[in-house]
Amino acid sequence: MFERLLEEAPLFFSYPNLVFILEAMGRTLGMTVIGCTVGFVVGLMIAVLRRSTSRMLLPFRAIAIAYVETFRRIPFLVILFIVLFVIEPLMPGSSLFVIATVSVCLIATAFLSEVIRSGLESVPEQQIEGARTLNFNSLQMLLLVILPQSWKMILPPAAAFIVMFIKDTSLASQLGVIELTFAGKMLVNRGFSPVLGFGVILVCYFALSYPLSRFAAYLEKRLASS
Amino acid sequence: MHHLEIKNLSSSYGTEKVLQGVTLSADKGEVVSIIGPSGSGKSTLLRVLIGLTLPTAGDVFVAGEKIDYGGRKSVRSLRDKMSIVFQQYNLFQNMTVMGNVTIAPIKIKKRPRSEAKKHAAMLLDKVGMADKHDAYPEELSGGQQQRVAIARALATTPEILLLDEVTSALDPERVNEVLDTIRALTNEGITMLIVSHEMAFVREVSTRVAMMDQGQIIEYGAPNVIFDAPTEERTKKFVANILKH
């Protein structure tokens, strides 16, 4: 087997193949980054919305809760197919990458909003009462008191989720998005050894997620001591 | 006209009636202490006054103006004039000592930063924390945190200051530094409502003392009357019990 690998290696690591793999890696990274960025921003808004007690916002709160509770319980693959069959007739010709990215956004928003919500809730009630008696309004309370104190509770699990999510984007290969996993499959189908093909894919996934895990660990350590 | 006037104030947590028609008044610059057994509603009274707990009945007047606790505007203008110091200090953990004392003047009252800092430095000096401007709350002892909390409450230049068992969470050897700080404030013209278990201190600084039990004020008078010649049986018992220790 080892000889076969050595024999195939020069062919496998040809310039077009490397570009092909890097492009696929870019798609995996793109889906994760866009999904988690949108997820973080929208998730934060949902988390803040769910904390509000205003009666006017009650219907929005109900929708937010229903959304979060539903999407956290649907497998990612199922969301991919739902989004595919909803978006296709609405916007014909949407690329598979767009469909997969929308799916990633939907699921990342649901999960990250829960991470953020529990982070916000970790700030003791006394902090909020102190701010209220000093006439802080809701936004000032959030920006000046609650958020600065909840980052250390939010960032570590959020980073863990994102690292995990890099792997889950492989399910988009089921749709035909040429991300890392699908790229591996295609290379193997062209006749390259599966050990070589998927071995390289493995290294690519590792290269994406390991630095992020290290960064998360660093953040956790720094935030814990501040 | 009284500076602070409380009429028939009631409040409940769920079905439990914590305040049952409290009536109390304080003139400008007066130091009124509220004593009484645990669970008698002393802290709740202060929480209702500052608008953290809603009253179910009764009225509160500040300088003759009736407070509408359901109305945002009324509560805002109330909190412009009234500050509270909590038992657990409630300092903002993400801000330095200086940050804690200047945040409300700068962000809420929109005072110039340099002016707010100058005022804060003066207040921190007054509470004996002049050398700790850049420390974070978690680096300070309870007594130090509480003194910063007092400076923070004063930074918005309140006319009325509420002190809610401010020494109860402190180590015994830290109690006096906080009491000394409060003592120094009592002749600055700020109307003070003090909930405390430090009877010697209460007796010394108060102009009047209110004895509270089961959500009501059962006796209200000069400290020497409340401590030496109470008329109510429950006051007699409470005072006798406390002074024994």
Explain this structure.
- The complex is a heterodimer of chains A (226) and B (245).
- With 226 residues, chain A is mostly helical.
- Chain A has a single domain (2-221), classed as Orthogonal Bundle (MetI-like fold).
- Helices cover 82% and strands 0% of the residues of chain A.
- Chain A is built from 9 helices and no strands.
- The radius of gyration of chain A is 22 Å and the shape is elongated.
- The model of chain A has no long low-confidence stretch (mean pLDDT 91).
- Chain B has 245 residues and is α/β, with parallel strands linked by helices.
- Chain B has one domain: Rossmann fold (3-Layer(aba) Sandwich).
- Chain B contains 9 helices and 10 strands.
- A 6-stranded mixed β-sheet of chain B has the order 6-7-8-3-9-10, with helices on both faces.
- The longest helix of chain B has 14 residues, at 113-126.
- Chain B is globular, with a radius of gyration of 18 Å.
- The N and C termini of chain B lie far apart (39 Å).
- Chain A binds chain B through residues 126-127, 129-136, 140, 144-145, 148-149, and chain B through 50-52, 76, 79-80, 83-84, 86, 88, 90-94, 103-104, 107-108, 152, 156.
Write a brief structural summary.
The complex is a heterodimer of chains A (226) and B (245). Chain A is an all-alpha fold.
